[in-house]
Design a protein that fits this description.
The complex is a heterodimer of chains A (536) and B (64). With 536 residues, chain A is of the alpha+beta class. Chain A contains 17 helices and 20 strands. Chain A has an eleven-stranded mixed sheet. A three-stranded antiparallel sheet of chain A has the order 3-2-8, with helices on both faces. In chain A, helix 2 packs antiparallel against helix 5. Chain A is globular. Chain A starts with 10 loop residues before the first strand and ends in a 7-residue tail after the last helix. Chain B has two helices and no strands. The chains are: A alpha+beta (536), B mainly alpha (64). Chains A and B meet through strand 2, helix 8, helix 9, helix 11 and helix 13 of A and helix 1 and helix 2 of B.
Amino acid sequence: MNERIPRPFLMGSETEYGLSGLRGGEVMDPDEVYTLLDEALRQERAWAYDHAGFQGMFLEHGGRLYLDYGEHPEHATPECFTPRQVALYDKAGEVLLDVARKRVMASLPDVEVRVIKNNLDPVDPDSTTYGTHESYTCWVPPHDAAPQLLPHLVSRVLYAGSGGLTGHAQGYGLELSQRARHLRAIQGEDTTCNRAVFSTRVRKAADAAGEWTRIHLISKDSQRAPFGIYLTFAVTGLLIEMINSGYAVGRGLALVDPVNALRAISLDPWGRAQVKLIDGRMLKAREIQSVYLEECERALQAGGLPEWAAEAIGHWRDTLAALERDPLRLADRLDAYCKLLIFEHELLRASLDWPDLRGALAKLHALRRSYAPNVVAAVLKDSDAGLRDEEQKAFAQARRIATLERPGMLERLLFATRLQALDCNYHELGGLYDRLHDAGRMRGVIATAAEIEAASRTPPSGGRAEARGAWIRNHREEDWRADWQFVWQTSSGLCLDLRDPFAAGGREVRLKVPEDESPWYIDVLDLLNAPPATAP
Amino acid sequence: MEQRERTLPRPAGAGGDPLTGGDGLDVLGANLDGILAEADRILDNLRPINAEEYLQQNRQRGGE
């Protein structure tokens, strides 16, 4: 290993939420629902318009909320220094959207808003996904880091997933990861189709400045339980920090087929799947993680790791030990195992087994892909009452596909539908996860509700997010605009320059703003880069 | 894939964190029982046709 050179290290998450709304029982356009949330949140928190648009805002906690591609509200955390901060601010995004949701529903009694923190369309999960992305500061070229991290990114599915039902024939019926089925490449830039286990996407010039790159990973799930968020960022961040310090990690762990290995690990929630290494060995995900853990423990003893490393390694070690004894020991702190516990129990209660459920899920999938919702609903009612002639023909065909004539098949389809709804409801703000948490059944482990609430109002201290948050809190006039790299007032040109992501405090300047241009079209970075920017 | 019979981690003592010692298994056992009771409550109040309607209402587009 090289002598450790202390270098700044930042982390953060960006999470897309599912969104739906009903007005008087009728489904609303997601754009309209988002507008209601946006207006409500502006009444609850200090904010500044997002200079980039996207119906967005930067908030007093230093993070950002905006409407992203596919009509998904996206919350980005402020720049964080520790994995615990990432977990708190990731959860703070839930608080912000929930505050807005409740305000909308209190003021508009005929409107019901649902905000869902998951990654899959509940009706067609094999086709439609949306993401949560991780950012880490990497001080070595990403192509050097990738091969060291790939076996980790594949095996961390053990705790980086949030679980989801699947009718996949080779699976158990519950996958550890919602994203696994949508990862198709080992490395690559694409985030909407050919998604990669190690994403090489660099979104902006400011994300790769000189010696460092903001690595932008897309393979983890959105998670409701904060311990999963923490552990995912802690372990991945620690490994990247070791690479930053000159360590080689993941030696001898190269996989023959990382994409299919990740899929196989995800499909077996009990952790028994073995994957093939290039050296010929077959290892379980937990065994791969244990090799990385030993590397980190040795480095910890040698000194030079971040101050949060010892705590992270402790949680990591305990989690792997629990997985070896019984994954259900993690049911009160990790989403996927909570669901595994619940679905195992409900199957027993219904006197069904996992193959029954898998078969029913596969049939539901086929039905929903081929028939209109009212025809599928008619099949589940086993009645074509109310269908038009053409729909009745479709009903008869769909009924054959569903093999309703087989004893018990209709009951299985109904049971599987209810479990899918429960699976989705787990992720809905105010849904099953929150009910379990509020009843004291889910452990935050590293985060309390009070700390998460505080994170929704206050930025992490010591970095540029602190200055961003303070300016947003102290300047409430509507002509303030914000970006990751600046906060500025369109009328005065007063600007807080935050271009250095690692510097605290920022620098006040007064911009020379062209008078005949709309504030929205002004390229503030151009103005900041063009000397001289005079002191105010 | 083989079927597995569920066995909840059972108590061995009281207090603490179940991952680091036997004491916390009491808490874990109570938490797991509580999780199942709450899931049962929701599921038992969910009619299948309402479940299908709920899923259809929450359809999402692809993102990123």
